[in-house]
Amino acid sequence: MPISSTDSELILALDVGTLSVRAIIYDQTGHLVASAAQPIRLNRLSDIEIEQDPDEIFNNLILVMEDALSNNAVAGRKITVAGLSSQRSSVVCWDRQTGKALSPVLSWQDRRAYAYLDPLNRQAHQIKEISGLILSPHYGASKLRWLLDNNQNLNPDSDFMFGPLAAFIVTNLVEHQPGIVDHVNASRTQLMDLQARNWSKNLLKEFELSADQLPKCRPTQFRYGTLKNSTISLEAVNGDQNAAIHGAGQLEPGTFIVNIGTGAFVLLPTGNSPIHHPRLLASVANSNSESATYLIEGTVNGAGAAIQWAAEEWNQPNLSHNLEQWLKEVETPPVFVNTIGGLGSPMWEEGPKPYFIPNPDAAGDPTTAEKAVAIVESIIFLIHINLDAITSTGQDVKRIRISGGLSSVDGLCQLLADMSQRLVIRSEIRQSTSRGIAWLAGQAADLELTDWSDLEDDYFLPKQNRPLQSRYRIFCQAIGWN
Question: In the CATH scheme, what architecture does the domain 10-241 have?
């Protein structure tokens, strides 16, 4: 018999995204009880220098947590468990004794440290074999090297620690300030041995970094400690995308997962062993003290970021509000060569500057609506390229489950179904990351999680769309992908 939402224990989910922080409280059946959110700023100093304020992130996280916990729907009810999800590959430095930030957060989008990777190109294959990651300035190792060389707070006499943003948050969120980090966020530094799930001596040597300066690696499901000024135990920490795949509870074999926000992340569970592809990523999905599950993963940099780019370029802040209608109306869009943030997997290059290729069947210059539809189609094209690369490893993809902000656009989901010729499923849940980390925390604490997968889904059946396929071929030719 399902536990009623009024009688069940509650789970606090803390979600530190790129543009906002959220605190959402769930019951044991996965129903949302209370929530709060605050935006956080993304400071673009240049095309490659992208920072955030660690104090703003942490202070806003405390604000939303207090707001959610004070909600009337929570009054008098038991909250014993929390989970934390965080943007991956973002790094920061802090004082080991006080937890005080000593640097800005270098965002996962930041690429300022690219020059540190040039001497390592000969070791790129070995680095990927150990870490599961392509040699890239998006990951933490080169950023940490840059901070070590360029931040005056990190002198030989200072007692500092640096690493993933998640570790800084845990240090300041939990009693006794533990210097620890989960396996998933640790892995995005490109310094962790993926199978040993600990810092790699070889990788530390390559990047000239010391394990003494990094937090200790711990499983994603682990008793991290008690939140300050509370009795709530932090039982799970994970990366945002890796938490999101657990939004519907237990992973479904053969389900290709697309979480589409600022970037689009495409993931397929591969069980208890990582599967290596020369142009894709291997990562930890979840881990506990006994075992780990793994993913094969692709990255699209220009998803919501491409929509945001267009809104700024065209001075149309409400551009995204019109996408649904335009996707119904536009028949002959141009092709958008989407290199916003650089081409992610499996190309891993900057690519040309973004531009539009006119549609020969269209009359005159493309309209704003036509260009906006072209941007949406380019996101689908980049996702499909990754799907093809993943299936080339012999993995069987039966269906696609989509979540994230842009998944609310029906036309985008239908384009994905048409392009992939697979069923696309969109759950009623929109905050899959917070729901996923809540499920992981509840499971780690042995709570009875019932009906978690009992969701109302939307289904998008594939249709034949030859013009879309034709534009896809033009897109691939333009970015040099065959």
Answer: 2-Layer Sandwich (3.30)
Residue 15 near residue 434, CB atoms below 8 Å: yes
Q: What pLDDT, on a 0 to 100 scale, did the predictor assign at position 341?
A: 86
pLDDT digits 0-9 by tens, 331-351: 999 999 999 988 999 998 889
DSSP notation for 26-60: EETTS-EEEEEEEE---EESSSS-EEE-HHHHHHH
Instruction: List strand residue ranges (DSSP E) for 160-280, in order.
Output: 160-164, 180-182, 192-193, 198-199, 216-218, 221-226, 233-239, 255-260, 264-271
Task: Judge contact between 409 and 217, C-beta under 8 A.
Answer: no
Instruction: Quickly state the pLDDT bin for 5 (edges 50, 70, 90).
Output: low
- On whether the pTM is more than 0.70, the answer is yes
For residue 336, the cross-strand partners are 356
pLDDT band at 297 (very low <50, low <70, confident <90, very high): very high
Q: Which of 83, 402, 433 is nearest to 246 (CA)?
A: 433
pLDDT of 2 strictly over 50: no
Contact 151, 103 (CB under 8 A): yes
Cα–Cα distance measured from residue 90 to residue 18, given in angstroms and rounded to the nearest whole number? 9
Conformation bin of residue 229: beta by default, left when phi > 0, alpha when psi is -120 to 50: left
Residue 163 backbone zone (phi > 0: left; psi -120 to 50: alpha; other: beta): left
Radius of gyration of the chain (CA): 22
Task: Identify the architecture of domain 249-428+452-482 in CATH.
Answer: 2-Layer Sandwich (3.30)
If you average pLDDT over residues 418-438, what whole number do you get? Answer: 90
List C-alpha distances in Å: 242 to 11, 78, 237: 18, 27, 10
CATH 3.30.420.40 range(s) for the chain read: 10-241, 249-428+452-482
Q: In what order do the strands lie in the sheet with 399-403?
A: 281-287, 292-300, 264-271, 255-260, 399-403, 423-427, 457-460
- pLDDT above 90 as % of the chain: 83
* pLDDT mean over 323-337: 97
